[in-house]
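Can you give me the bound-state structure? Components:
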Amino acid sequence: MDRIPILRMGNYLLVTIQVDMHDKLALTLQDDLTEQISNVNAKGVLIDISSLEIVDSFIGRTLANIASMARVLDAETVVVGMQPAVAITLVELGMSLPGIRTALNVESGMEYLRETVGIHEENDDDHGYSTED
Amino acid sequence: MMIMGTVLKTETVPISNSSDVVMVRQRVRAWTLELKFSLVDQTKIVTAASELGRNTLEHGGGGSMELSLAENGTRRGIRLRFSDQGPGIPDLALALKDGFTSGSGLGLGLGGSKRLMHDFEIDSKPGIGTTITAIRWR
Amino acid sequence: MSDILNAIQVNRVSVLKDWLENLKSAVQRRDLINDRELEAQAKEMLSAIADAPSGSNLSDLNQSGWQPLKSILGSLSVSRAVQGFTPSETALFVLSLKPSLFSLVRKDKGREADDLLSDVTAINDFIDNLALHTTDSYIHGRDQVIARQQEEMLELSTPVVTLWDGIVALPLIGTLDSARTQVVMESLLQAIVQTNSRFAIIDITGVPTVDTLVAQHLLKTITAARLMGAECILSGIRPQIAQTIVHLGINLEDVITKSKLSDAFKLALERSGRKVVRMDKSNGPAQTTPRGA
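Here's the bound-state model for the whole set.
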């Protein structure tokens, strides 16, 4: 079955959602991400939804679930690039996604993750790996 | 292409699995484009369709969506009609409340979809089935 | 009923000729339309009547057989409006077909007064309804122009200004109604994306009253911006508005509010890692340390 690719960048996992996901695909992503976070001991997850034109309550809940599960595994999640029309619709739907951190784009999302998680990321020219814990 | 004055066109999309819900979104998007809705309105309509489509699948056990042009005097809009022969919704008022889940995930679906559309009507008979009709005007 | 339509079908050439003569002696507006165009319009309308499918009833304009006619008249009305015709002039165009049709049935049924009367009545009502349809279409066309202009005005009156790199402000002026707030919401959110701004200041100094509906719209905008990754600061809250907000029980707990725009700006600068420092003549270059975008 097709899967959404998860990229690894040091301590962070990057996911770009570009397709109109059917529910099963979203659930698979949830499973894959949780597994990956655990496998590589990721500290941060960045989910890029700038190509998503529709986020309904199911996808919204999936994103919230991912953030919660990541947190349990000691990883911080940031969702970036929500389109204005999507944001307006989610608010109208009644979903404000309170537990989820958001950022305007990948750049600010990564900045947020570095500030929150990557205490040692200042020395990017070293390893790019956190030597803590 | 639909032109005002010609015979009204309708389209039916079967809903029997989760890929069908993707088709529901795609067809509704195509219709909203043709009817020249604004981007925000398109998003609202397609999202409502996604919610209702999923409900039809998960709570109704599958069914179909009928897409048609809505006309009221000189107003034009899009009409979405979801039908299933499922267990029905015993308490409508409760189902429309936000946060209500019947275990099969009705959740925000109904109340939210209602807010995204202009006209919203539920016809549900426990044990027989449910038909939900929603219209958004341009 | 159907024999009226038959009669029109058979006699369409003479009816058209007769009608055009009436038109030429009625209100013409030669400044807006030339004879050839007028003839073409009349011919098109008459054909749509004469060629109506069998079974068409003059007394029911909602039948599908009349759709083409209604459609033609609708576009005619709208295009004439654009050209500068008044709705009456367009209605008169339609109404002036009556005498021609009356003469037609009189020729046929001249001797039977009752039949003649019922035919004349049927034609009369039919043409009246068509004329009314052109008026409706005219008004609808105008309404659409007005709506579009309103939208354009709304967009013009809600400019989003960039105060600094990554900080935008939306000074709202005037009353906020549902339609306006939608436009406002959308243009602010668009601006946030386009300018890559993490902070948006919504200043309501120029808004005279805030009711529950307006407050709800503002809150929705703020929530949507947050979902996108931007933080909103509400400023310009006058004492009366503050009172109203509390009175109405509106919950602004999650919203940062400042009474002055300048305070909101200062906060946004601080939050984005900047500070403003007064230059001392002995110090040299400014000490602003912009950090982060």
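A couple of observations. Residues 12-137 of chain B form a domain with the Heat Shock Protein 90 fold (CATH 3.30.565.10). The longest helix of chain B spans residues 39-58.
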